[in-house]
Write a structure and sequence with these properties.
single chain; mainly alpha
Length: 72
């Protein structure tokens, strides 16, 4: 995983910079990777988790596609 960095402009509140940093960390997947590495995961569990993630991702894509088609 790559490192997460944000650029803070002069006069920007610390709270908003921290909020942006947290959003970037969530998008990069660092926290999820740490959760999965907390305990050893054998190859069967890894494959099972990846299948469930793919299933959920496809389901969300279908739902978003349906929502976008209903907009017009």
């Amino acid at each position: 995983l790559s490192s997460v960095s944000i650029s803070v402009s002069d006069g920007e509140p610390v709270e908003s910079a921290l909020r942006r940093f947290k959003r970037e960390v969530n998008k990069s997947g660092h926290l999820m990777e740490l959760r999965h590495r907390r305990h050893f995961e054998n190859s069967q569990e890894y494959k099972k988790r990846k299948l469930v993630q793919a299933r959920n991702r496809k389901r969300l894509e279908r739902l978003n596609k349906r929502r976008m088609s209903n907009r017009t």
